[in-house]
Write a structure and sequence with these properties.
99 residues; mainly alpha; 2 helices; 53% helix; elongated
Length: 99
């Protein structure tokens, strides 16, 4: 699915949502809750318009594969001084016995 197809699908879904909210509004009346939902759908429409303008101004760069940096880890043993004050399995006592 291309970017344009995805944007069109979102627009259609948003149009369906606006129609559904309108139907609810006629059934429930213009109460506070339905006005909040109506406001949210208006905000979604505004956000989608801004997104479309942003994409039109500078189309996203597509990468075929994500760039992952491999970090080599040595097989050499660690310096034992690193673990001098470490707790073992959450016991937390320096003598190694549970309280």
């Amino acid at each position: 699915m291309s970017l344009q197809d995805a944007m069109t699908a979102v627009e259609r879904s948003l149009d369906d949502l606006v129609r559904s909210v309108g139907k609810l509004e006629t059934q429930l009346g213009a109460g506070l809750d339905i006005r909040r939902v109506r406001t949210d759908t208006d905000h979604l429409r505004e956000s989608l318009t801004l997104l479309k303008q942003s994409v039109a101004a500078s189309p996203p760069v597509h990468r075929s594969t994500p760039e992952v940096e491999m970090v080599p880890i040595s097989d050499a043993p660690y310096n034992s001084a690193l673990w001098t004050d470490a707790q073992d399995e959450g016991l937390g006592c320096r003598n190694g016995h549970a309280p």
